[in-house]
Fold:
Amino acid sequence: MATPAGRSAPKTQEMLRFEHFLRGRKLKLTGERLAILAAVFGSGKHFDAETLHAELRSAGGDISRATVYRTLDLLVQSGLVRKNSLGANHANYEAALGNEHHDHLICLGCNRVIEFYRSDLESLQDAICSEHAFRPLHHSLQIFGVCAACKDTADEGRILERLAQIHT
Amino acid sequence: MATPAGRSAPKTQEMLRFEHFLRGRKLKLTGERLAILAAVFGSGKHFDAETLHAELRSAGGDISRATVYRTLDLLVQSGLVRKNSLGANHANYEAALGNEHHDHLICLGCNRVIEFYRSDLESLQDAICSEHAFRPLHHSLQIFGVCAACKDTADEGRILERLAQIHT
DNA sequence: TTTTTTGCAAATCGTTTGCACGCTG
DNA sequence: CAGCGTGCAAACGATTTGCAAAAAA
Structure:
């Protein structure tokens, strides 16, 4: 565990932020939390708790599912991680550091998630909120459909079935 | 159950549509299904399975939760009902007949759900999809925040707590 | 040493399902 | 009367929680 005499390993942005967050709440920086943080920022963009748990396990660790959930929750609270649904019946997560807000196109053929950001969409939403004297704090836009890669190969039947199961 | 001699009770739009849907699938029109249909179209805009089940129960009926879920599923498939999430950890539903597509503003103070429709928002989404060669089939936009009525009274702490629990 | 964390297994919660009986077409 | 539909209770899958042991501050 220890770093070579007197030299600390380079701390990543996310580590610094997480430490700061934990300190602010008088919480402790444990090996498990660090391992999860590293896995989150090392893995692909979108993942779920189960996948993360599996990755940690195959990476040699032995962290319980409970700790994974508990830590993901902390990461979300700290703002380092975002929680999405993406139409699944389980939560999806994504690292939020160096990854500004965006919305999602979700392919029902291959499950690919395409991120997009459009300032005009954002301002249109703001305008709508104004009209309703509504103060927006958060929004979630998910567009489900078929991506370019699946356009020709996708089986319509299966697509529609998936569409029906969307939990959004 | 029977209607007075020779005169059938007026059938509502939704009954006709549901009957048609069921016939098309060789499914049966049962008393339970009719009762649920009536409750759905008689109740407020947004509701969940549990609430619906309770309403049916207090209305004298004795329909099992399983049947409620099974029937809601049929209603969704028939297009008579829409299933939403509204940020809750359980599904929400709304009657879809005579109720065109719209998106939602959800107040974290009082749970009020404000519906809105903006064609420019819709076409902007279409434009975004085109740019990505993505064929949209369905979308869900939910904006969480504080409505006009709660603007002054809402407790920020509670609001933020609610925000953190959003399962979207 | 004091306090927080962890792993475990049991508990929840919303929802689904297998089965034996009941009702519709 | 042949199929569907229903209620029940058990099964489910994702997530949460109580508790005693383990680790950080």
Confidence is low (pLDDT under 50) at residues 1-7 of chain B. Strands of chain B lie at 46-48, 81-84, 92-95, 103-107, 113-116, 135-146.
